[in-house]
Amino acid sequence: MGHPFPIREIARQAGLSEATVDRVLNGRGGVRESTAQEVHRAIADLDRQRTQVRLVGRTFMVDIVVQAPERFSTAVRAALEAELPALHPAVLRSRFHFRETGPAAEQVRTLDRIARRGSQGVILKAPDVPEVTAAVGRLMAAGIPVVTLVTDLPASGRLGCVGSDNRAAGATAAYLMGQWLGDRPGNVLTSLSSGSFRNEEEREMGFRSVMRARYPERTLVEAAEGQGLDATQYDLVRAALARDPGIRAVYSIGGGNDATLRAFADLGRECAVFIAHDLDHENTRLLREHRLSAVLHHDLRQDMREACHLVMRAHGALPPAAPPPPSAIQVVTPYNMPAQPGE
Q1: Do 257 and 170 have their domain in common?
Q2: How far apart are CA 23 and CA 116, in angstroms?
Q3: Taking the model in full, what pTM does it have?
Q4: Contact call for residues 315 and 120 (beta carbons, < 8 A)
Q5: What's in the keyword line of the UniProt record (predicted)?
Q6: Does 57 or 110 have the greater pLDDT score?
Q7: How far apart are CA 14 and CA 77, in angstroms?
Q8: Tell me, what CATH number does 33's domain have?
């Protein structure tokens, strides 16, 4: 495949040796298919970051490690790459390690591989489990600062965390839910992708606290461990609806919202109020179609900018500063949606 990048740049982006990259590019064989795919992904990343590659300045190579559905990972990539030019005169380059689900051991292997080959920083969205916490500790001990994104790992010794106040977001969802349901009867389905993500746990706690205090007559029904993936989410929601004919509203903490709505439709059930999180491409479409009542959104570009600044401060490239405040929570309806790129 044609490209304008020297082998050493591709090797650095992919985290591989120049000899391995050369074998892939010249079709010499002896390379696993997964390794060849890493080379081609590195070239695609370099092409998107072409402006940064050509800049001259202090360079930071940062690894972005995210466990989340593709729709969220795509939003993270777009937010970071939109911020890269604004970091000039520093040059920040990024390598991406995305997966939708899987055992914690896979995430640990990725983090340990980064520790061995080196990096100027890691921006991480991962479950809060002991194995991952220990791997983050090893990165920090190796002098690689780690910033957690959206969901925290407070026992890991990470450098900092960027994102919104998740308890406040859950409480906001409960306030809106109670106002919009009003006097109508009905139970509320709370949907989590996984109890291992601290941000989802905190949102759920904020939501339950306000619902118990202000709307004690509402029964909350939980559907968990769908991983935000459509197939598993559909089955979980459909089973919950079959068990409880009183469910009339949804607070979606972990995504999979199109599948949730299909489950309601397939059983001929009305969803009177549906509150979700994050303006990813799926939620943007559903909100435009008036199939969601509101999306609680925070500015991912601001989060990625703050994460990059934390990494740069750790290396002395920016003066010390106080920890960044939580991102503002925006209540987005079909009538106040922010403009999307290209509009």
Answers
A1: yes
A2: 23
A3: 0.81
A4: yes
A5: DNA-binding, Transcription, Transcription regulation
A6: 110
A7: 16
A8: 1.10.260.40
